[in-house]
Specification:
The complex is a heterotrimer of chains A (245), B (316) and C (292). Chain A has 245 residues and is of the alpha/beta class. Chain A contains 10 helices and 10 strands. Chain B has a two-stranded antiparallel ribbon with strand order 1-2. Chain B starts with a helix and ends with a helix. Classes of the chains: A alpha/beta (245), B mainly alpha (316), C mainly alpha (292). Chains in contact: A-B, B-C.
Chain lengths: 245, 316, 292
């Protein structure tokens, strides 16, 4: 089966710093891939490379079989690869509905239809009651939903979620896990960058672990959780020696 | 609200019957600067790309139409579109350079100012275009040469221009074009991530804006019967163009119009009472103070504040 | 080549000497931008006020601009302080467009108050050093230019010492480098901003006074000086003090050599064209190396 997304030998440096080095990544259709690693491992850089916001120094990215390296972000979005930002970027002076409409316009160029479609998406993510509010009036949890909704409105085949749970309390995390499951059930593949290990383990089919821009482990959640290099990357090597064999 | 607009329109259409010729002139200027402000609004307000060099488009439009009229005998009614097309070409060049090279904010402002100044100095140094003294249009009063004996014709033309630009801005605002421009203005990166081709839409906005502004150049030239590079390409005109929408409310439909109704009479008054001749600077000082005041106290402009106040009073 | 080598050499030397003033001017702008990320559109107009103040001191009080640059710098320091505390400070968190418009407003006010006060005709300050020249080998040098250069460079060095050797200066650099970090260690950001803006304005005040005997000026000179400042600072790297210094010398030499080869009335044209080229070649996010 052709992978939905395939990155090979992906590399990117900033000055002398190698942010991502020779990364291979695949996402199968219908899969949820977790992307973990300590801060500074290069996860968001990977997202930027995949979504066209950064150009790779080397390597290739294929989406649906075609190379998307060099395409501008809006073109990649239209091909069906959408992403959210770690720090949410709502259109401040627009309402929730208007924000989502911008995404919907990508598939429904006529403004009234786009608005209808946006309304559906807004309901679906649970912001129906807040639809007419300015984006700046939302709580953090609501802004994360808005960010998700706007990306959903572009009707992606693959959605990259960058730390969508950061800053949420446990109740909000539960709620968003349910939403993500729902999104996945509708046929959208996902890549999740997350620090919330419980959530990542629960949601992902496979996990890729990065450290200093390199892949250090890949496999099922159980395999990766026990992987010595992953433990070392997060906790330091005393814990590796202490871990059960 | 709709009735208010219809009533205002009817009043404006009937006004020339009762206005003195001096008052008529003021209204012509109100409409004309309202028109230029609305044209700027499309790229400066809706798209949020601050251009401080829009006078360049007025100059290109005006000089083109004038040269075509005096040396090729082309009626300005056609010449104005040639001028506007050339202005749009310049707009496309500036837009391409600015947007392709990722110039935003302060860098884009500098780019637009640089182009306007280059045009000004270049035209000042070209004798065929009249050099620093400029060009003069002989008065014939012939409507086919865009000249009218009756100042009321200018009034209606200026009003028509302002309404046309407003109608275009309104149409843009309702469609995807307008929504995308607003998204670009709010957060271009997020817009790109949502499928908006920021480059294309900024270019379109720039082209439409510069085309309309270029049309205004012809009106300016044939209303004043003279063109000087310093007046037509210079910073003072660029300031006149942007200050009305900014004070009135950039990115709103009524902003440039409201701004013009507020500022144009004010500018005329200051010109009258603080004297002409060497005290040209007086109204520009007022503009500077106003810009500072707006930024500090009324960043969205007068119209949004007014609208909120009206909504609040309607509720209570 | 049909051009006299001596002329070229002359142009080089004159340009270099004049560059001292450009450097000082650019250093002022860099300080303001480096610390506050504020683009001072009124920079050139502030410098013109430095010139007019020097003119007033010379004409009314008989004070030589080479002495008068001190009160000029002081006056502009106060102006910078007032502008920063009264205006810029209030919009420090607002979107960049607002800041641009604010400084445009300040520029409009400064230029047109000068226009109303002094009229549009060009002025020049007469200095007792006025016409004296020296011979340096094959080229001759205006003593005035030499003194201007010396004082300008001295002031630039002084500013650099201030930034690197005094506590206040170190605080300014800390805030410029890492505002949050500086706040954590107790920096009073607002005071730092005010001082930085004041010192930046003082630099152009002094630069204006120093150049007033050499260059005829009028209120509209402000714009071209602002453009030149931006040119220099963008070339040298926004926020880099050494960059501003070297850039000032480079741009001045380029202008001077340009005058040797091309028609002088095209100077403005070349200045703006250069700006466009620089803007395109060094695209947006070009925040040079912040080595304040």
């Amino acid at each position: 089966m052709t992978p939905l997304l395939e990155a090979r030998g992906l590399s990117r440096s900033f000055g002398g710093l190698r942010a991502v080095a020779g990364l291979d990544l695949t996402v199968a259709p219908g899969e949820v891939l977790g992307l973990i690693g300590p801060n500074g491992a290069g996860k968001t850089t990977v997202f930027n490379l995949l979504s066209g916001f950064l150009a790779p120094d080397g390597g290739d990215v294929r989406f649906g079989g075609r190379s998307i390296v060099g395409l501008p972000p809006h073109a990649i979005c239209r091909l069906g690869l959408a992403r959210t930002f770690q720090i949410t970027r709502p259109f401040a002076r627009m309402t929730v509905l208007e924000n989502v409409r911008v995404g919907a316009l990508a598939r429904h160029p006529r403004a009234p239809e786009a608005l209808d479609r946006a309304r559906e998406v807004v309901e679906r993510v649970g912001l129906g009651a807040r639809a007419g509010l300015a984006a700046t009036a939302l709580t953090i949890a609501e802004r994360k939903r808005l960010e998700l909704a706007r990306a959903l409105a572009t009707e992606p085949a693959l959605l990259l979620l960058d730390e969508v749970m950061a800053g949420l309390n446990p109740t909000e995390v539960e709620a968003i896990i349910r939403l993500i499951r729902d999104v996945h059930a509708s046929g959208i593949s996902l890549v999740l960058i997350e620090h919330n290990m419980r959530a990542v383990m629960a949601l992902s089919h496979r996990i890729v672990a990065l450290s200093f821009g390199e892949k250090i482990a890949e496999g099922t959640p159980a395999e990766v959780a026990d992987h010595p290099r992953v433990i070392e990357a997060y906790l330091g090597d005393e814990y590796v020696r202490a871990a059960p064999a | 609200m709709k009735w208010l607009i219809v009533a205002a329109l009817a009043a404006l259409l009937a006004l020339p019957a009762v206005l003195s010729s001096y008052a008529l002139t003021i209204f012509i200027l109100i409409f004309f600067y309202g028109f230029l402000g609305q044209a700027w609004n499309i790229v400066g307000g809706y798209a949020g790309q601050l251009s401080a060099g829009h006078a360049a488009f007025v100059g290109v439009g005006g000089y083109t139409a004038t040269m075509l009229a005096t040396s090729a005998g082309l009626t300005p009614w056609l010449g104005m579109f040639v001028g506007a097309a050339l202005a749009a070409l310049l707009g496309a060049i500036i837009g391409y350079l600015g947007f392709r090279f990722g110039l935003r904010g302060f860098y884009f402002v500098l780019l637009t100012v640089a182009f306007a100044e280059i045009c000004r100095v270049a035209v000042s140094n070209i004798d065929a275009l009249g050099g620093p003294l400029g060009l003069y249009i002989t008065f014939t009063g012939d409507p086919r040469q865009f000249q009218f004996q009756d100042p009321r014709v200018y009034y209606y033309i200026a009003l028509a221009l302002m309404l046309a630009a407003t109608a275009i801005a309104w149409a843009i605002g309702r469609r995807r074009f307008g929504v995308y421009l607003a998204a670009i203005r709010e957060d271009e990166t997020a817009a790109e991530a949502s499928g908006v081709n920021a480059f294309r839409y900024k270019m379109l906005a720039m082209i439409v804006s510069s085309f309309l502004t270029g049309l205004g150049g012809t009106f300016y030239a044939f209303y004043l019967f003279s063109l000087q590079p310093n007046s037509l390409f210079g910073i003072p005109l660029s300031v006149e163009i942007i200050i009305r929408p900014i004070v009135g409310g950039a990115g709103t439909l009524a902003g440039p119009i409201l701004g013009s109704f507020i500022l144009t009479p004010l500018a005329e008054l200051s010109r009258l009472y603080l004297g002409g001749g060497g005290l040209h600077g007086a109204h520009l000082i007022a503009y500077g103070v106003l810009l500072i005041g707006v930024v500090l106290f009324l960043p969205e402009g007068a119209y949004p504040r007014l609208r909120r106040a009206l909504q609040r009073s309607r509720r209570s | 080549m049909g051009v006299d080598l001596t002329l070229v050499l002359q142009g080089l030397v004159s340009g270099l000497l004049f560059g001292g003033v450009y450097s000082l001017m650019a250093v002022g702008l860099t300080l303001i931008f480096g610390v506050m990320r504020v683009v001072n559109f009124a920079h050139g107009d502030m410098m013109v006020w430095g010139m007019y103040l020097a003119y007033l001191l010379a004409a009314r009080a008989g004070i030589d601009p080479y002495v008068g640059f001190v009160p000029c710098a002081a006056a502009l320091f106060v102006l910078g302080l007032v502008v920063q505390r009264g205006l810029v400070d209030r919009i420090i968190a607002a979107p960049h467009e607002m800041q641009i418009l604010l400084m445009l407003g300040v520029a409009l006010v400064l230029e047109n108050v000068a226009l109303m006060a002094f009229g549009p005709e060009p002025t020049r300050v007469r200095s007792p050093l006025g016409a004296a020249t020296l011979w340096l080998g094959p080229v001759f040098v205006d003593v005035a230019r030499l003194v201007t250069f010396a004082v300008a460079v001295a002031l630039t060095v002084a500013v650099s010492l201030f930034l690197h050797r005094t506590d206040a200066g170190r605080m300014i650099r800390a805030v410029a480098d890492n505002t949050y970090g500086a706040l954590v260690i107790g920096a009073d950001a607002r005071r730092v901003y005010a001082v930085a803006f004041g010192v930046g304005a003082a630099c152009v005040g002094a630069a204006g006074a120093l150049v007033s005997p050499i260059l005829p000026f009028q209120p509209s000179t402000g714009l071209s000086l602002s453009v030149t400042s931006f040119n220099i600072v963008i070339i040298g790297g926004m926020g880099s003090l050494p960059g501003a210094f070297i850039g000032g010398l480079l741009v001045s030499v380029a202008e001077s050599l340009g005058a040797v080869f091309f028609k002088p009335s095209l100077k403005e044209l070349m200045s703006f064209s250069l700006l466009i080229v620089i803007l395109l070649v060094r695209p947006a996010g070009l925040f040079g190396r912040r080595t304040l």
